[in-house]
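Quick start: read one record
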Amino acid sequence: MSAHSISHNGSLEWPPRIFVVVDVYLPGFKSGGPLRTIENMVDRMDEYKFFIFTRDRDSRDDAPYTEIRIEQWNDVGKAKVFYSAGMTMRSIRRQFSAVKPDLIYLNSLFSFGTIKVLLMRLAGLLPAIPVVLAPRGECSPGALGLKRLKKHAYLAVAPRLLYRDLIWQATSEFEKADIERALGHGQRIRIASDLPPRQIDLTPLQKPRKQSGAAKFVYLSRISEKKNLHYLLSLLRTLRGEVELDIWGPIEDASYWRRCQAEIMAMPLSVKVAFRGPVQHERVTRIMESYHFFALPTLGENFGHVVLEAWTGGCPVLISDQTPWVNLEAKRAGWEMPLAEVSLWSAVLQTCVDMDQLTYTIWSESCRRYLSEWMSSPTLDHDNYALFAEALQAAPTRTPRTASAQSGGHSAS
């Protein structure tokens, strides 16, 4: 075991250690945004050392991963990752004691991992170190409207007991307002966007030809009520022209998927819908490349990594106004629209079908250009470093870690 994070004289050793609790991590791929966010954070934030505590299997899988060491620390990219069979409080506490972190980083309000850590903190079973909690869009009105009674009952109690002395990470002013609305004013909220990959592939694409009167749409996300797939399906029936929609993603809610299947069965012959199933993240950009437009009428996203992936693949996006992405039509990157304005959604979908090749090429190239400009912003990394720096500011000084603290292998050092 390496030197402790906090030395005997109370100073903070370098680099600071971040203990991340997330339900699913690599090599999983079915849980979407939170996994991508943590992966990109680890890769981009070189001034911190990340220790990730997670489950030993992908979302909703019965069997554990076969390519990792369970109940041991694994080297995954720049991080150390512990894959736990049960994510029990005992296991969390044992690995927490082994790592001796300087900061806890939690994902999700409602995950069992988050709740267990906060209960242990309340009971004094963990040292009093800073905690950053990223709700990942769960405070949006659309997300809170699902399983409403259970969530509101929990949130009526949690702020007074579990959420004291936390720093909340909001990815935008949009999400900050959601957090304040859900938890009340007075929360310590800092804005730091979810991080994209260091680089994106902007080599020329082989997009399908766009003929006026025909369009290929793609939905790529989890199949759950929050993602609102049935809304999109109900609109496709109204379109004129030859329309295709491919659905990619894991079925998270079987009863909701049956609802979507009923919509699919009611499609006219001019609308072809196919379910393609889950997809490995490495294939997403190439999949996006083979479609004209990406559609996601979500009830709420704090960020939306899949939007970036659609733009990387040259797809203008049709999304709800419940994400931080705004003014897309002016940038020719897509459209964000209120879900209540069904006629607007129908009109924009028809515009996509009617679009000719020349116009489509302009839009496809514009959305990739907009993505490139957005990713060049220096505030992306700066805001995330500022978030952690503020949480760690109580430590008076920093001292270099010993060489043993950087060693690999099976330990948490």
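The chain has two domains: 12-197+377-406, 214-374.
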